[in-house]
Description:
Layout: E1 4-8, H1 13-24, E2 30-33, H2 38-48, E3 55-58, E4 61-64, H3 68-75
Parallel strand pairs: 1-2
Antiparallel strand pairs: 1-3, 3-4
Amino acid sequence: MAKVTLYTTPTCVYCKAAKEFFSENNVKYDEKDVSKDEAALKDMVEKSGGMAVPVIDIDGEVLVGFNKDQVAGLLGVGQ
Length: 79
């Protein structure tokens, strides 16, 4: 399965939607709360070029925001 890293903040509704999607489709992921983890924030900004969340890294493919169809396509799930 793909290596998935999800950069989030506690108040982000799209982050919550991404986590629910991963849970429903049994996708294991590493969650990094950028509001509490400065190293994760730096890593996210380097990957995405910005401060918007969620940022989803799927095997090096970096997505900003949560587009269910795009994520499902990259993971081959939920379709």
